[in-house]
Design goal:
Structural class: alpha+beta
CATH superfamily: Methylpurine-DNA glycosylase (MPG)
Mean pLDDT: 96
Low-confidence stretches: none
Number of helices: 4
Number of domains: 1
Order of helices and strands: EHHEEEEEHHEEE
Length: 197
DNA sequence: TATTGGATCGCC
DNA sequence: GCGATCCAATAG
């Protein structure tokens, strides 16, 4: 017996205008949606990392504002996309009040809508290879630097609550950084097969 | 203007 | 384990 339409609520700017660790945890179990050129791609967020303020040496904002990281210093609820290793894109969601640089890196998704197109974009057939890493999910969902600065309350890219309950959240050090490893600012849904590595 | 290193991935 | 590959930050 099928239930009625699930609760679906687009997260508003107030959600992002809060302490970054809290936002990073609460994003788990929510759905990232990208809609461009008539397609609809989405996945459940299963892994995030927090990058916070002026004193976090792992954050791009550590040494102040630059052309690349200026979105992090702006209003909460916008997308910050950058290129790393010359090849890969990474997607962050800007948090906290204007002038305080902070964001949540989206590291992994459990793919839901548009899986066929994701497979095509990734040139991979296995579900597990589609969005189990920050650069993989950007390739699968067609997130590139044109998305940098996009309003997360637009219809192009946003996060919504579909009423899912998260069973258990685990935390660890952030991945791929040199300094700031003592902070356990990586969060993921325990037992999700789509968590990176 | 030149140099250096990177919030990764995929293959060896 | 390691190379790809090029942008962006920093130094000169």
């Amino acid at each position: 017996m099928k239930k009625g339409k699930p609760i679906s609520k687009k997260l508003n700017r107030k959600f992002y205008n809060r302490p970054t660790v809290q936002v990073a945890k609460e994003l788990l179990g929510k759905y990232l949606v990208v809609q461009k050129d008539g397609y609809n791609l989405s996945g459940k967020i299963v892994e995030t990392e927090a990058y916070i303020g002026f004193k976090d040496p792992a954050s791009h904002a550590y040494r102040g504002m630059t052309p690349r990281n200026m979105v992090m210093f702006g209003d909460p609820g916008y997308a910050y996309v950058y290129i790393t290793y010359g090849i890969h894109h990474c997607l962050n969601l800007v948090t906290e009040k204007k002038g305080y640089p902070a964001a949540v890196l989206i590291r992994a998704l459990d793919p839901t809508d548009g899986i066929g197109l994701m497979m095509k974009r990734r040139e991979r057939q296995s579900l597990k290879d589609l969005t189990s890493g920050p650069a993989k999910l950007c390739q699968a969902l067609n997130v590139d630097r044109k998305v940098n600065g996009a309003d997360l309350y637009s219809d192009v890219i946003y996060v919504e609550d579909r009423g899912d309950e998260v069973q258990k959240i685990a935390s660890s050090s952030r991945i791929g950084i040199k300094e700031g490893k003592e902070k356990r600012w990586r969060f993921y849904i325990k037992n999700s097969e789509f968590v990176s590595r």
